[in-house]
Structures are given as C-alpha cells and as structure tokens.
Specification:
- With 220 residues, the protein is of the alpha/beta class.
- It folds into two domains: 143 residues, P-loop containing nucleotide triphosphate hydrolases (Rossmann fold, 3-Layer(aba) Sandwich), CATH 3.40.50.300; 65 residues, no CATH class.
- Helices cover 37% and strands 25% of the residues.
- It has a six-stranded mixed β-sheet, sandwiched between helices. A four-stranded antiparallel β-sheet has the order 2-1-4-5, with helices on one face.
- The protein starts with a strand and ends with a helix.
- The structure holds adenosine-5'-triphosphate (ATP).
- Adenosine-5'-triphosphate binds next to helix 1.
- The site of adenosine-5'-triphosphate (ATP) has 11 residues, from helix 1.
- One of its GO terms (molecular function) is ATP hydrolysis activity.
- InterPro entries: AAA+_ATPase (IPR003593), ABC_transporter-like_ATP-bd (IPR003439), ABC_transporter-like_CS (IPR017871), ABC_transporter_ATP-bind (IPR050166), P-loop_NTPase (IPR027417).
- It comes from Lentzea tibetensis.
Length: 220
C-alpha cells in the first residue's frame, strides 16, 4: 500500500499543528518520522489513520482517507490488551469481530504468537507477561489482521533498552518479511537510523539515514 500526502494541514481548535506537509511512503517501505516532542508526529499518524479531520490530501493507494479502516492499523506505546483475556484470546478478538471462523482464527493467532516468540505463553493473562511480551502480543494481534499499512507511534517508548533492542529487531524482520508498508514514529535517533528505510524529520525534511551525525544534529 502506498501513501501520498500533499498539502496536509491538521489543527486542534484554532491552533495549526501541521501545515502544508507533503510526504510519500512507497509500497513495502518502512518510513520513520522523527522530530522533537510536540512537532506533530502523533497527529500525522492520527490523520493517516482517519481519526482526525484534515485539510489537503492523504491518498492511500490512490483513495482519499475518510475515516478509519481495518487496512490501516495503529500501534501505540500502551498495549491496549484486555486484561481478562489470555494472550491467545487477545490476538483472536479482532479476527472474531471480523467474522473469521473459529478454527482459522485460532491457527492464525497461534502462528503469530509463535512468530513473535511467545509459544508456550498463549494461556497467560497480560498481567502475567512482561512489558516486552505484552508488546509482542500487541504486534501479533495487529499483524494477524493482515493490515496493508501499519502506523506505529513510539511503540517501544516504555521498554528497557535490552527489550527494546530485541523488539526493534523483531519488528524490522516481521514487517520486511510480510512486505507491510509502515510509518514508524519515534524521537529516538538510534531507533530511527536502525529501523528506517528512510527517515523524515518533521519540520526539517528528509535526512539521509546513513549520516546519523547529521540526524543527531537536526534532532538535538
Ligand atoms: N487532542 C488534542 N487537543 C488539543 N491539542 C492537541 C491534541 N493532541 C495534540 N495536541 C497538540 O498538538 C501538538 C502536537 O502533538 P503531537 O502529539 O502530534 O506531537 P508529537 O510530535 O507526537 O509529540 P510527542 O513526541 O511528545 O508525542 C502539541 O502541541 C499538542 O499539545
């Protein structure tokens, strides 16, 4: 799925947060959007997800974004798991809501939990899992729905350094394996350089990912 944004404007009340922003994400690309706190990164994701009104144009595979769609999945720092459902039943839930037959959703959920390294933990409740494991469940739940576009908003912000590094590797592997187009928001320079096929710094344009010294200077 490709995304073409042109002349985008978003504001809350009278104050504009984004104005005249243009950006393209190619099919299968992992684009990182970086920038200092408050520059509008989350707002950009919310607009692409169809959660906030905007001016200008957001085209997803050529069609304007008007409201939310299952095709576009938003992943947050908070995992949003239901505390009374096991890991397996959390992953199954959106598939059940989509009417996927029981046997199919069970095998898909099991396969995704295995892919994110959680086989053996299917029957655990969220409170019995670490923060990193809960993020793995969230990732499995998101990808089991086979979205064409994944929007990730600082998903690893609350994890410790080691867990974060293993999640970054996992996300990078899985998204590339599945060819899922992704917009990944972070304010962490190392994460941006590690994950991004390209890095866009809001307010400063595109920055060469291979020249992270420049990126660090821009974000400092
Ligand atoms: N629901 C809202 N109502 C009013 N103002 C808002 C709302 N959400 C965000 N803002 C304002 O819009 C601006 C951009 O916020 P946004 O969350 O998009 O930035 P960000 O770059 O993602 O920041 P951070 O890195 O801190 O998450 C901020 O000044 C914020 O206060």
């Amino acid at each position: 799925m490709s995304v073409v944004i042109s002349g985008l404007g978003v504001g809350y009340g009278r104050s504009p947060v984004l104005s005249d922003l243009s950006l393209e994400v190619r099919q299968g690309e992992l684009l990182v959007v970086a920038g200092p706190s408050g520059c509008g990164k989350s707002t950009l994701l919310r607009a692409v997800a169809g959660l906030v009104p905007y001016t200008g144009q957001i085209l997803v595979d050529g069609a304007p974004v008007r409201g939310t769609s299952r095709e576009r999945a938003l992943v947050f720092q908070e995992d949003g798991l239901l505390p009374w459902r096991t890991a397996l039943r959390n992953v199954e839930l959106p598939l059940a809501l989509q009417g996927v037959p029981r046997a199919v959703r069970r095998s898909s959920a099991l396969a995704w939990l295995d892919r994110v390294g959680l086989s053996g933990f299917e029957g655990h409740l969220p409170r019995e899992l670490s923060g990193g494991m809960r993020q793995r469940v969230q990732l499995a739940r998101t990808l089991a729905q086979q979205p064409s576009l994944v929007l990730m908003d600082e998903p690893f912000g609350a994890l410790d350094a080691q867990t974060r590094a293993s999640m970054q590797q996992l996300v990078s592997d899985v998204l590339r394996e599945t060819g899922t187009t992704t917009i990944f928001v972070t304010h962490d320079v190392d994460e941006a350089v590690l994950l991004g096929d390209r890095v866009v710094v809001l307010g400063a344009g595109e920055v060469d990912v291979h020249r992270d010294a420049i990126l660090k200077a821009v974000l400092a």
